[in-house]
Design goal:
Blueprint lengths: L7 E4 L9 E6 L3 H8 E2 L12 E9 L4 E11 L10 E6 L3 H13 L3 E2 L4 H8 L5 H12 L3 H11 L2 H24 L6 H26 L1 H9 L1 E6 L6 H9 L1 H4 L13 E6 L2 E6 L1 H6 L3 H16 L2 E7 L6 H9 L5 E6 L9 H8 L4 E3 L8 H13 L14 H22 L4 H19 L5 H9 L6
Parallel strand pairs: 1-7, 8-10, 8-11, 11-12, 12-13
Antiparallel strand pairs: 1-2, 2-6, 3-4, 4-5, 5-6, 9-10
The chain binds guanosine-5'-diphosphate and zinc ion.
């Protein structure tokens, strides 16, 4: 347990009026400072058992004035979040009282914590590694259940374990290379070393590429699958949108005189968070494509991860349909053949032909049929039909992704270097670089400066 840190305190509950507020103190003096404020018939917090909760009053030691009636949790290190002694004071007053309590604690020798400093201590005291610290933030910010469980997995160290084993492999190779270099008198050593480096670099590259391939899903879980609904006027885009958004939200759309410009909506389709983009346009004009033209659709299409292309199957395909079909042919796309309750005027054969690999789903917004199939198709497209496994480990943090890409590059440099017959000691530099970059993910090879920057983006009290 690290003891060379001062004692810090902060309000850990979000700002605003709440039923209770929590002030957290962490560090060597947490208990003694709390004791200066705590009053309960001769009881001393520094003498109670760890992980217990205590009723009492808090007073300002300078004035003996009662601040609040509180419940105090005593958590003695090292089995705590920061590995230090922690005292958590549950006040039940409003922000004013909570602030008073914090100020009093600060006047007794604690320092106001920086944003993220509690988590930073957890990291510095070796309780969690950097990717886990970042996961703390992700858990707080995660938008859907699936992305929350992804963040929890990262918090429990799944990614760290993978990265650590990759680093160990690299270290083993580098050690082997060192040994070989120490015996230069054998002719075949140089060749052996090259082929060893080559095999290892290729294997590592494979592994990292496969970790990175989960990044796409990871981003989706985190930010939502950018989805846009396109189609010519009157095919049923608004109806589909409202259907996806649920009845409640549909009501808020076109109230006369309001200028609500809702551009982003989130819906959860079988655990896939959809971020519906450019929906304001669909709501406001009923002939979006004709008014804003195919040009604007092109923009929406470019931004989207998924396109729901709605067609009216009671009408023959017209040139706009064909234009949109072409425009979206290389995209992740689902064709929605709407109005299946009406007589069909299109050939399913022709549409399937035009659709290529895109799923074709028949729906009726009027009869509310085909919605299940559509949801299934969305899930299929992005998770190969598997419901998102709770323990799937998706890399979703952008910092991790860019470091993994950097590692990938170093390994590719190793391979091309060897192919070009570069001397082993030069190739070794790239291999070492791969080891360093991976270490930055878990924070093992991280500079102080970067560390501070990272933790300062955390919210206060965490
Ligand atoms: P948009 O212009 O593409 O947004 O189409 P809307 O959702 O506004 O729908 C245009 C018209 O088609 C409305 O009168 C809807 O009630 C109707 N409509 C939408 N879906 C269906 C459907 O599945 N069957 C039938 N019969 N009518 C539908
Ligand atoms: Zn519409």
């Amino acid at each position: 347990m690290a003891t060379d840190f001062d004692t810090i305190a902060a309000i850990s509950t979000p700002p605003g009026e709440g039923g209770i507020g929590i002030v957290r103190i962490s560090g060597e003096d947490a208990l003694s400072i709390a004791d200066k404020l705590y009053r309960m018939k001769g009881k001393k917090l520094s003498q109670v058992d760890s992980h217990t909760i205590h009723y009492g009053h808090l007073i300002d030691p300078k004035t003996d004035q009662i601040l609040d009636e509180v419940m105090v949790t005593v958590l003695k290190g090292p089995k705590t979040y920061t590995r230090e002694d922690i005292v958590e004071i549950n006040t039940h007053g409003g922000m004013l009282v909570i602030n008073q309590v914090l100020q009093t604690i600060l006047s007794q020798g604690a320092r106001a914590a920086q944003p993220g400093e509690f988590t930073k201590r957890a990291f510095l005291n070796g309780r969690i590694d950097l990717s886990q610290a970042e996961a703390v933030m992700d858990v707080i910010e995660s938008k859907t259940e699936a992305s929350k469980s992804n963040a929890f997995n990262q918090l429990s160290g799944d990614l760290s374990a993978v990265i650590q084993s990759l680093r160990q492999e690299i270290l083993n190779v580098l050690a082997q290379v060192e040994v070989n270099i120490d015996y230069p008198e054998y002719d075949e050593v140089e060749e052996m070393t090259s082929s060893l480096l080559m095999t290892e670099a290729e294997e590592l590259l494979d592994q990292i590429t496969s970790i990175l391939s989960t990044a796409q899903q990871g981003r989706i879980l985190r930010e939502g699958l950018k989805t846009t609904i396109i189609g010519r006027p009157n095919v049923g885009k608004s109806s589909l949108l409202n259907r996806l958004l649920g009845e409640e939200k549909a009501i808020v759309t076109d109230i006369e005189g309001t200028t609500r410009d809702i551009v982003e909506d989130y819906v959860n389709v079988r655990g896939v968070p959809l971020k519906l983009i450019d929906t304001a346009g669909i709501r406001e004009t009923d002939d979006a494509v004709e008014k804003i033209g195919v040009e604007r659709s092109r923009q929406a299409i470019k931004e989207a991860d998924l396109i729901l292309f709605v067609l009216d199957q009671s009408q023959a395909l017209n040139p706009t349909d064909h234009d949109l079909m072409k425009l979206t042919q290389d995209e992740n796309r689902i064709l929605v053949l709407n109005k299946s309750d009406l007589e069909t005027a299109v050939s399913l054969e022709e549409i399937k032909d035009l659709a290529g690999n895109s799923p074709v789903i028949s729906t009726s917004m009027t009869n509310q049929s085909g919605i299940d199939d559509l949801e299934e198709a969305i899930a299929q497209l992005f998770f190969q039909g598997e419901t998102i496994e709770k323990d799937a480990n998706y890399v979703s943090n952008t910092r991790h992704i860019s470091l993994l890409k950097e590692t990938q590059q170093s390994l590719e440099d190793v391979i091309t270097g060897l192919e070009m017959g570069m001397p082993v000691d030069l190739v070794q530099i790239d291999m070492t670089h791969a080891w360093e970059t991976l270490g930055e993910i878990t924070g093992e090879t991280m500079q102080d400066e970067l560390l501070n920057e990272l933790f300062s983006s955390f919210c206060l009290g965490k």
